[in-house]
Each structure stands twice: as structure tokens, then as C-alpha cells.
Amino acid sequence: MNYKKLAERLLPGEYPSPEFYEAKYPPRNLPKGAEVTRLAPSPTGFIHLGNLFAAIANERIAHRSGGLLYLRIEDTDLKRKVDGAVEAVINALKYFDIAFDEGAEIGGDETYAPWYQRQRAEIYRAFVKKLIEEGRAYPCFCTEEELTALREEQTAKKEITGYYGKYAKCRNLSEEEIYAALDAGKPFVIRLKSLGDPENKLKVRDAVKGEITVTENDQDVVILKSDGIPTYHFAHAVDDHFMRTTLVIRGEEWLASLPIHLELFDALGFPRPRYGHNCSLMKQDGETRRKLSKRKDPELSLEFYRKEGYYPRAVKVYMLTLLNSNFEEWYLKNPDAGLNEFPFKVEKMSKSGALFDLDKLNDISKNELSKLSEGEMFAFLKEWAEEFGSAAQKGYFADEEKMLRVLALCMGVGGKKRRKDFTTASQAMEFVKYFFERPAEHDAYRVENGVKCAILRAFIGRYAAADDAQTWFSKVKEIAAENGFAAEMKDYKAEPDRYRGSVADVAEVLRIATTGKANTPDLWTIQQILGGEETLARLTEELK
């Protein structure tokens, strides 16, 4: 068969030579040992925890080696493209402080642009044409109906599904049959003519998993679709070569495609990049573990963490505990160190499924938020409220001095031990709500209504906003004694049957009436922040 003639018929016109592209996209000028890594999502509008997992690994590997990380958008499938998806990817990863050096909508070294695959169509077609000329690719005229029937036949026979061997019916079409189909205007795709043998095993050094064994590819995969746009498999091989990617860290779900990708690099005459397949994020579901699911688990989406208001550093800390087995020990010894100081190593990445535990993330989040100053917490909460908060919550920040006093109290700033009450921005905003809005609901009082009202009337009659904490508490103890409660805790513990309860129960009545909550930080300070007029108004409202 005259392959050059066929290539010209299938892809007419002059295309630049491989040498032209090698010169146009030269090796990067980087130090020896520098890694070039990438994140290459599809613009589907869904950016998930797995993307962040891979992004953190790629960013750390690149920057610790003196290399770079770039963002490539794999938009070869227009049916899956969602408007605004690229901006969503960039914003989500920016929130978690993923520092790209170049890429789509980021810019950088234009030598390796464009970073959208559909804008690189001519490059792919040039190399598809080269493979046709070499007899390594061919046109396939099979319809969707024929391919569906083929899969059904293979499934019924319990054979591997796909287009290979005896099932690759267009692979051995004669020259006459091909040209007759073309002359008839039949649509076609271009497939790789695989030289693989499924009986052969390949030993491959995986950067994460170590030495693995895979079966040679024998599938004649589609490399160019009928619209002239390549498939992901082909485009990624061309792009990783000409963007000079040295290491591809990706999810282990791509292991099944590794033989295809290795054969494509070999067929194109490109040196293979190194591949590392990181473990899947798993979730405990009853007695079993399963992969996090887009349908079942809202916490898979990165938007979940932004809407809930997780502190970005906390999420990153937790991801690093899953990514590198020695991170947790290092972080315990270096709790205030910059995360970029951690000596991240590919070899320390987990080789099997990592259990994602939202409770552990929440504990880390509490710890990380407790390290902030009230000013830093103010900025974090305000930024969250401006994007996700209600109109009322946005209003909490109008009086900056008041909010800073609230945060200092709720975080235990200046105390012997920092409080760890805050988990996320949304939870923190709910936590401080009673400082800015009168409670619509109150926790249950543990005393009967008549006793409650007696305590409130007595306190209202003696309350003075100018009282210091000691004077304030002395009045609470007086009211306790007058109403049958022990004024001193030691007395109540010694003879509990003599009293209705203790001074703590009286304070609880005042606390619930003031805040709606039975448990809060120091009540005297809360009433000081609210002011005398507001405090009395709330206490009076509860006289019923």
C-alpha cells in the first residue's frame, strides 16, 4: 500500500516536520534534576479532591527540584466542556495556594503555549499524518452501531472488549476498499495500528509504586476523531513531549491506560516520561472501604471546602499527611514551619488507597485555626462571608472592633490555652451569631420557669455594665444563695441535697437568656461586648 498517498488523502496539505516542532519546543533551560510536572484537567466544571491531591504532589515535586508546574486544559471532548470551568479550576486551586508557573489563563513562558489542546490541533494532525505515512495508523469506517454490536459479541463470549486482533476489521482493508469508502464520503476516525502482543509482559518502574508489570497494548485505539481533533490518549503523548514533561503524577485509575501510552510514545519516537500513579482516596463505608464518589460524597468536590469555609492550609496539611507517610511526624516537630519546608519525596507517597477521614480533617482544621491571631481570623471570615455568607453575616464585619473582641474571646487569645472551637468559616459564623443577632431559639433551661424568672429579675435589678468580673460574679453568687442554690461549688459538692443546685446552674440561666446557648465562653466578657442595653433587653425578653 502507498502509505504516503493515503496520508495525503486522509490529511491533505503540508504539515511541519517533526524536526520543526522539536526546534519550536526545545528542552527547557532548567537545572539538572529539575522536574517538569503538570496538572491537566478537562473543563467539565467539576474540580475534585483527587485533582488537589495530584496538584499538591506535582507542585511539591516540581518546586523542590528546581523545576516547574504548568496547567494544561484537555478540552478535546467538546461535549463535556462547561462554560467557566477553566476559571473554576484556577480559582479552586488558587484558594489552596497551588502555585502554577505557567499555563492556561496563567501565562508564563510562551515558548510552550498554547495550553489548550484544541488550539494545538495542527501539531497533532502533523504527527497523525506521520504515523499514517509509516503504516502505523489507518482509517476506520466502523459506525457506532457496528462498534456496539462488536462489544456485545465480545461480552457474550466473555472476551476482552475493544478494537483489536480479529475484531479490528478495518485494520486490513485493501487499498481499493479504503479509497472506495473515502470516495463514498464515509466518515472515519484514525486508529493506531498496535504492534503489541497481550502475551508479552512489560516491567515498568512506577515513580510511586516501584516496579510494576503490565500487559503490552494490542488495542488499535482511536488517535484522531472524525472532527479532526485527537483523543486524550494521543494528545497527551504529543503535549507531554513538547511541553517537556519529565514526570506524570496521576491517579491509579490511569494504570489501565499505561500500556497504550507507552506504545504511543514509542510509535511517535519520543522518549517516555516517567509515570507515577498515586493511590485513590478511599472512604470507610460501614465495614468496607470504597473510593470517594461524586454521586455519594459531597466532600469529593473542592467547592464543598470553599462553601463550608475550610481554612486552606488545614486542607493542605491533611492532604500532605495522606501524600507522604513521614509528613505527620515532621509536622508535629515543626508545627509553625512553612509547608514548603517539608522535604516531600515521591518515594514516600502511599502505594495503596489512602483513607480520607473528614473527622481528622476537622481536628486539623480546629488546630490550624487556633493558631491565627484575631486579625487573621477576621480577614479569613470576612473573605468567606463576602463570597458565601448571608446579608446578615456580611453585616457582622461592619463594626471591626466588636468582631475582633468577639474573636479574641472565642479563640482564647491572651489566655493560658488557645480555644479550638472553630472548625470552618461557616461553623465559626454560626458560633458567633449570638453576638450580632438575638437568639431565635434557646437551649432548654434546667430549672423550672418560676425559678428562672426569679433569677432573671434579681440579676436585672442588680446588673451594672460597669461592674468588673469579680463584682459581677459576686452578684451572681448572691442571687444563687437567695434562690436556694449553693453560692460556692465546694459547699454544693459537700452537701448536694441541701441545695437546688449550684452557682453554675444560676450562671447557666443567665447564659441561655443572653446567648441562647448553655455552653459559651466567659459570660461576663460576652455581656461586656454586647453592652449593658442589649444585655438587659435580652434578659428581659426571657421573663415569661
Highlighted features:
544 residues, mainly alpha, Rossmann fold, Glutamyl-tRNA Synthetase, domain 2, 4 domains, three-stranded parallel sheet, three-stranded antiparallel sheet, 24 helices, elongated
What is the count of DSSP helices, taking H or I runs of 4+ residues?
Answer: 24
Q: Average pLDDT across residues?
A: 96
Helix content estimate: 40-55%
- Overall geometry comes to elongated
CATH topology of the largest domain, what is it called?
Answer: Rossmann fold
Q: By helix and strand content, what is the structural category?
A: mainly alpha
Q: Give the total of domains.
A: 4
- Secondary structure: number of strands: 13
Describe what this molecule looks like in 3D.
The protein is mainly alpha-helical and 544 residues long. The chain folds into 4 domains: 170 residues, Rossmann fold (3-Layer(aba) Sandwich), CATH 3.40.50; 82 residues, Glutamyl-tRNA Synthetase, domain 2 (Orthogonal Bundle); 62 residues, no CATH class; 93 residues, Orthogonal Bundle (Arc Repressor Mutant, subunit A). The chain is 45% helix and 10% strand. It is built from 24 helices and 13 strands. The strands form 5 sheets. It has a 3-stranded parallel beta sheet with strand order 1-2-3, with helices on one face. Strands 4-5-8 form a 3-stranded antiparallel beta sheet. Strand 6 and strand 7 form a beta hairpin.
